[in-house]
């Protein structure tokens, strides 16, 4: 976790993710989400079934976090993704491969 600058107002985001160990698994899950009639419903279902994170029990919901709480590559992916859109890629971190669904980005006042 990076050190937070308390003088600066930070962005917040509400996200879900699916964490898997291998690139082929991430690619397969991403394809299923992209081809689904209801992508968010499919994301939740696959998060519960395949995610290696404890958030799997909450259908991948990580809740809200502030800038600086997550690893850099994960956060970078969150800030560039449009909220409530189907992910077009996955992100590799030291934990594995993440598929990310951004519900909301809250910018500072």
Please tell me about this protein's structure.
This protein has 109 residues and is of the alpha+beta class. It is built from 3 helices and 4 strands; from the N terminus they run βααβαββ. The longest helix is centred in the N-terminal third of the chain and has 13 residues, at 23-35. The protein is globular. It starts with 11 loop residues before the first strand and ends with a strand.
What keyword list fits this structure?
Chitinase A, domain 3, globular, single chain, 109 residues, 4-stranded antiparallel sheet, alpha+beta
- Overall radius of gyration: 14 Å
CATH topology: Chitinase A, domain 3
Following the backbone from N to C, one meets helices and strands in this order, namely EHHEHEE
Q: Any idea how many domains?
A: 1
How many DSSP H or I helices?
3
Widest sheet, order of strands: 2-1-4-3
The largest sheet is: 4 strands, antiparallel
Shape by Cα distribution: globular
Distance between the termini: 24 Å
CATH architecture call: Roll
What's the CATH C level?
A: Alpha Beta
Quaternary organisation of the protein chains: single chain
Number of strands: 4
Brief characterization of the structure:
The protein has a four-stranded antiparallel β-sheet, with helices on both faces. The chain has about 110 residues and is of the alpha+beta class. It is built from three helices and four strands, in the order E-H-H-E-H-E-E.
């Amino acid at each position: 976790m990076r050190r937070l600058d308390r003088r600066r107002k930070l962005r917040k985001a509400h996200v879900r993710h699916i964490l898997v160990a291998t690139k082929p698994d991430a690619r397969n899950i991403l394809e299923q989400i992209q081809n689904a009639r209801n992508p968010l419903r499919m994301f939740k279902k696959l998060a519960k079934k395949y995610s290696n994170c404890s958030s799997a029990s909450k259908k991948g919901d990580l809740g809200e976090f502030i800038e600086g709480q997550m690893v850099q590559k994960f956060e970078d992916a969150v800030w560039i993704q449009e909220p409530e859109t189907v992910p077009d890629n996955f992100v590799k971190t030291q934990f594995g491969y993440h598929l990310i669904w951004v519900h909301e980005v809250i910018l500072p006042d």
